[in-house]
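Fig. S4 source data, part A: sequence.
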Amino acid sequence: MDEFDAAILNVLQEDGQTPFTELGEKVGLSPSACHKRVKELRRSGMITQQVVLVDERKAGLETSVFVQATLKNQQQATLSAFEKAVMHHREIMECYLMSGLSDYLLRILCRDGADYERIHADILTRLPGVDRVITNFSIRKVLRRTAVPL
């Protein structure tokens, strides 16, 4: 990856639908050169997908909840079963294997406290291997970046 690739990625992280003519103007390359570079960035896996970001509040999902999940053990089968299960629940927006006191950190997106209570009872406590969950409600989103610093 060179400086042109980094510039292209910075523009596309702000607006993934930037036309190649405009992209070329912004990074100092021809549209065809930009097209070739974007194609190679996709082929190499540097660009993994292009998505539309939806305003969570306007979608009625105003509450972010951060959940620390501790499993009964750290055996590979337990970890794998947990990770496979979280993939099936759309309310779980992010899942990280952690070091420290808990095994996983999850970000849950829900409508309100009652909706989270449903998620807690119907999903979180039923995930394979879960021993304990600790819940933290977000008061207000201060910052959310989607662009990777290049």
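Fig. S4 source data, part B ends here. The helical segments are 3-14, 20-27, 31-44, 76-86, 113-122.
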